[in-house]
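Lecture notes, part 5. Sequence design as translation. It can be helpful to think of inverse folding as translation between two languages: the language of shapes and the language of residues. The source text, in structure tokens, appears below.
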């Protein structure tokens, strides 16, 4: 777990540094998305190995994202609530992996987390003014 925390922190710093050189709306979201893509998409093909290997990191980067400032172009209350749900779901995933839950259970959990992510990325944004 210590290694995962270090990796997440390095990724967080990298995303933050990137944001300083290029406009990125929410670097913590981008970092989370990279972990989500690396775990969810293989699971769609029945490959749960990446999820099992990165479940703790997924939870860590979700917590980092939750702790970050919500950009002004997002609905604050709805986004905060959705991030709480996402963190809880990623913790559920990590616990399920640790408990050796079935691949079917893991696929269901990662799909739910994926849906929450897309809710935040899309429906939590304020309408363009």
């Amino acid at each position: 777990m210590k290694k995962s925390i270090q990796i997440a922190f390095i990724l967080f710093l990298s995303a933050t540094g990137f944001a300083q050189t290029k406009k990125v709306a929410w670097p913590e979201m981008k970092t989370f998305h990279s972990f989500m893509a690396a775990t969810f998409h293989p699971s769609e093909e029945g490959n749960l190995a990446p999820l099992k290997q990165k479940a703790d990191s997924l939870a860590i980067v979700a917590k980092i994202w939750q702790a970050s400032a919500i950009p002004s172009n997002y609905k604050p209350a709805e986004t905060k609530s959705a991030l709480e749900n996402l963190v809880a779901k990623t913790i559920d995933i990590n616990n399920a992996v640790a408990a050796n839950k079935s691949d079917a259970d893991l696929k269901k959990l990662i799909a739910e987390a994926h849906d929450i992510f897309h809710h935040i990325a899309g429906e939590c944004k304020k309408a363009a003014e």
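The translated text above is only one of many valid answers, since several sequences can fold into similar shapes. The mean pLDDT is 88.
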